Amino acid sequence: MLKPLTLAGSIAALALAACVPAAEAPQTAGMPPAASYFALGTEPGWTLEITPGLLNYDGDYGDTKILVPNPGARPSFNGERYVTPRLTVDITHGECSDGMSDRRYRDTVMLTADGKTVKGCGGGIMPPTELAGTSWSFVSIGGVAVARDRPTSLVFDAGRLSGSAGCNRFSGSYEHDGETLTAGPLMATEMACPGAGMTQENSFFALIRGPVSLSFPSDGTLILTGAEGQTAVLKRVI
Question: CA-to-CA distance for 148 and 140, rounded, in angstroms?
């Protein structure tokens, strides 16, 4: 049988509760995505990963490594700031180029590690300004991962595309209207390929026969989606 709590017991319970440390405060709203945030720079090469628990810096082409607890983001002008004794990170939301290609990122990042300041880019990768001049490789076709032993490519030039979906080389014209890609009749070599190469190629040819919609997730991939919902996922090469 439970006994009613006396006044003395109530005071003791309150005192005990006061001794229990409070739960750690959540990170400031507006910080980069909770799962992880990635930034990078060149000359010298460096990378930074921010997770809810850690800041993981790899600088000077791997010679400098700093792993510290995530202190939480402080609001800053159009961005966030992280401050630790060894590492300070300033993220400003604004378009950034990595300086080595035409890839564009959503944020500009300035980082000071043990007193040395470097600059780079971070956040989601923005879509290319145009398809012409870009090159991709296939990740999956029709929801099935491409065979690793079958090289693939899809290259866009001015008005023409070419590549391989794992077996034959193909090429043809294309039109790009906003978020829609329409390929003209494709010419292809006629080599027979055993196994997965021919299967994934046939899936791609079926997909590309009609207009396909284009989407560019923030991870930098390209997704082609056909009228019946079939997809091809590609990753950027250049």
Answer: 11
Amino acid at 208: I
CA 184 → CA 70, 106, 188, distances in Å?
Answer: 52, 34, 12
Sign of CA dihedral 31, 32, 33, 37: negative
Confidence at residue 197, expressed as pLDDT on a 0 to 100 scale: 87
| CA–CA separation, 163 and 139 (whole Å) | 14
Cα separation, 123 vs 95, in Å, equals 10
Q: Give 33's pLDDT tier (boundaries 50, 70, 90).
A: very low
CB burial string 94-109: b at 16+ within 10 A, e below: eebeeeeeebbbbbbb
Count of Cβ atoms closer than 10 Å to residue 38 Cβ? 19
Report CA dihedral (110, 127, 31, 72) to the nearest 10 degrees: -50
* The Cα angle at residue 136 between residues 149 and 122, in degrees rounded to 5: 115
pTM: 0.72
Please give the Cα distance from 176 to 160 (Å, whole number): 10
In this predicted model, what pLDDT tens digit does every residue of 138-197 receive, in sequence order? 999 999 999 888 899 999 999 999 999 999 999 999 999 888 999 999 999 999 888 888
